[in-house]
Amino acid sequence: MADARPRRRRPSGPPVQGWAFGAEGLPRGFWAVLAVLLLALAVWLLVTAYYGYAVVIAVLAIAAAVNLLP
Fold it and tell me: For 5-12, what is the mean pLDDT?
């Protein structure tokens, strides 16, 4: 026999507390270090003639650097 009581539903909104996701959840120093490391990797890949990979990594470095803008 089924239970006649209605089930309690979970709240459908965003959580009130928890981790802050997205670029604002990480410190600017993290983005700076990541951008520099990716840029160094892109240069190394260019030197070793991996042009396609170098371009992709350079785009990722630019994307990380965008998070440093005010």
Answer: 72
3-state secondary structure of 53: helix
Structure tokens at 25: 């959840």
Q: Whole-structure pTM over 0.70, yes or no? A: no
Tell me if residue 48 falls in helix, strand or coil: coil
Contact 26, 35 (CB under 8 A): no
Task: State how far the Cα of 35 lies from the Cα of 67, in Å rounded to an integer.
Answer: 10
- Enter the DSSP assignment of 11: P
In the predicted model, is pLDDT for residue 17 greater than 90? no
Q: Which amino acid would we find at residue 52?
A: G
